[in-house]
């Protein structure tokens, strides 16, 4: 299974924010609806380029350091500038390894240099569970057919 399978099921909608928006504005967007865990920072006006990423975790960690004044800082002040991305052609195993290695819960999906989706660890787990269920069913059917 590939990232493209996840996007086919969930769609390619990506929630974005501009780097000059305030952290408070980003927090409102994250809270929803829909409630989401991360926003891609894209300043190109077309929501195609990935300039960074900001997550709930980024905000919480900086809140502990900066206090309420954090909400008036810009997204650029706290975002992760070099976002780890994946491709629609990456396998589920590859993105699981990326997420684990870099401790990221969200990966923007980029194809030919253009943002085309976003996947979360929840999407990956859901896809993997579906794969495992199918595999178990096939193995059960093989066992029953041989006995």
TrEMBL record:
Source domain of life: Bacteria
Keyword Nucleotidyltransferase belongs to the record: no
Listed SMART domains: CBS (SM00116)
Stored PROSITE patterns: CBS (PS51371)
Alphabetical list of InterPro entries matching this protein: CBS_dom (IPR000644), CBS_dom_sf (IPR046342), CBSX3_CBS_dom (IPR044725), Diverse_CBS-Domain (IPR051257)
Domain CBS: 79-134
One Pfam short name: CBS
Gene3D superfamilies listed in its UniProt record: CBS-domain (3.10.580.10)
Keyword entries, A-Z: CBS domain
Alphabetized PANTHER family for the sequence: CBS DOMAIN-CONTAINING PROTEIN (PTHR43080:SF2), CBS DOMAIN-CONTAINING PROTEIN CBSX3, MITOCHONDRIAL (PTHR43080)
Name of the protein this chain belongs to: CBS domain-containing protein
Organism, as annotated: Pseudonocardia parietis
Taxonomic lineage: Bacteria, Bacillati, Actinomycetota, Actinomycetes, Pseudonocardiales
């Amino acid at each position: 299974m590939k990232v493209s399978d996840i996007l086919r099921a969930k769609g390619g909608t990506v929630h974005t924010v501009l780097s000059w928006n305030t952290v408070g504005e980003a927090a409102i967007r994250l809270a929803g609806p829909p409630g989401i865990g991360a926003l891609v920072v894209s300043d190109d006006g077309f929501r195609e380029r990935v300039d960074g990423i900001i997550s709930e975790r980024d905000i919480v960690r900086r809140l502990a350091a900066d206090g309420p004044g954090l909400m008036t800082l810009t997204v650029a002040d706290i975002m992760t500038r070099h976002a780890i991305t994946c491709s629609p052609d990456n396998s589920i195993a590859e993105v699981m390894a990326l997420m684990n290695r870099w401790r990221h819960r969200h990966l923007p999906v980029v194809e030919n240099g253009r943002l085309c989706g976003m996947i979360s660890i929840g999407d990956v787990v859901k896809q993997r569970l579906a794969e495992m269920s199918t595999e178990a069913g096939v193995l059960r059917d093989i066992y029953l057919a041989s006995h």
